[in-house]
C-alpha cells in the first residue's frame, strides 16, 4: 500500500476539512479547538455530533474495560480524522479521545456539514466511505492481534504495519526506513504491553540484526515475519 487510507494525499485534513471547500470558506464561526496534554476531547457516552480532523498534535482513541483497564485502539497524528462513527448515525460515543501533546489543534466538523458535503460531492463521499472501510478493517485487525497473539507477534505485526504506512527504501543500503510519529509509550500502548517489555523485544530484534532504531526512525535490516 503506497498511501495511507487509499488517498493520494496522506493528510486527511487537507482532503476533508470542509473549510477547504469554497462554499464553507466564509463561515465566520469556524475555529480550531486547542487541547493540552491529557485533555479529553470527548468521553464515552458523549453525544456524537461532530467529526474531528487533526491540524497538529496527536490524539489517543481508546476505551476502558469493566475492570477499569485502558485499551488503546489508535494513536492518530496530523492530517487524520476521528469520531467518524457519527457519520454513520451513531448517536453516542463508545470510546474516548484524548490529546497526547501540549499543542494539539483540532478542526471540529458538525455531522450535518459532513453529510451535506457528502450529498453534494460524489468524489468527497467516495473518499469518506473508503476511509471508513479501511479504518474499520485496521481496527479489527489490531483487536484480533491483542486477543489472540503473543506480545512479540503483536510487535512484529505492528512493525510491518508501520512499514506499509511510513516506510520507504533506502537507496544506499536497500533497507526499509520507517519515519513514524509514535513514541515508545505509544507503541507499547498500541500493542498492549509495557514499555519495559517493548524495550526488551526491540533490543532482541536489534541484537539479531533485524532492526536498528532511535526515537523517530526504525530501520528494517531484513524482512521480519
TrEMBL record:
PROSITE patterns referenced in this protein's UniProt entry, alphabetically: CNMP_BINDING_3, HTH_CRP_2
Xref: Gene3D superfamilies: Jelly Rolls, Winged helix-like DNA-binding domain superfamily/Winged helix DNA-binding domain
Keywords: DNA-binding, Transcription, Transcription regulation
Domain of life: Bacteria
HTH crp-type domain residues: 149-224
Keyword Transcription tagged: yes
SMART domains in UniProt: cNMP (SM00100), HTH_CRP (SM00419)
CDD domains: CAP_ED
Domain Cyclic nucleotide-binding, chain residue ranges per copy: 35-93
Full protein name: Crp/Fnr family transcriptional regulator
The organism of origin for this protein: Sungkyunkwania multivorans
Amino acid at each position: 500500500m503506497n498511501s495511507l487510507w487509499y488517498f493520494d494525499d496522506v493528510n486527511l485534513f487537507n482532503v476533508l476539512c470542509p473549510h477547504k471547500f469554497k462554499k464553507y470558506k466564509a463561515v465566520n464561526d469556524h475555529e480550531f479547538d486547542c487541547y493540552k496534554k491529557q485533555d479529553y476531547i470527548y468521553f464515552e457516552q458523549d453525544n456524537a455530533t461532530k467529526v474531528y480532523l487533526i491540524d497538529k498534535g496527536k490524539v489517543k482513541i481508546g476505551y476502558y474495560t469493566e475492570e477499569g483497564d485502558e485499551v488503546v485502539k489508535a494513536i492518530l497524528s496530523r492530517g487524520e480524522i476521528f469520531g467518524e462513527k457519527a457519520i454513520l448515525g451513531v448517536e453516542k460515543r463508545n470510546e474516548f479521545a484524548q490529546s497526547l501533546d501540549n499543542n494539539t489543534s483540532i478542526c471540529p466538523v458538525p455531522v450535518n456539514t459532513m453529510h451535506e458535503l457528502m450529498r453534494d460531492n460524489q468524489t468527497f463521499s467516495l473518499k469518506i466511505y473508503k476511509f471508513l472501510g479501511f479504518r474499520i478493517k485496521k481496527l479489527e485487525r489490531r483487536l484480533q492481534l491483542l486477543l489472540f497473539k503473543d506480545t512479540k507477534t503483536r510487535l512484529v505485526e505492528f512493525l510491518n504495519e508501520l512499514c506499509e504506512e511510513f516506510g520507504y527504501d533506502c537507496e544506499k543500503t536497500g533497507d526499509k526506513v520507517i519515519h513514524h510519529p509514535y513514541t515508545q509509550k505509544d507503541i507499547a500502548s498500541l500493542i498492549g504491553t509495557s514499555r519495559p517489555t517493548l524495550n526488551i523485544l526491540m533490543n532482541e530484534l536489534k541484537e539479531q540484526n533485524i532492526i536498528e532504531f532511535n526515537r523517530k526512525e526504525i530501520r528494517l535490516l531484513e524482512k521480519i515475519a
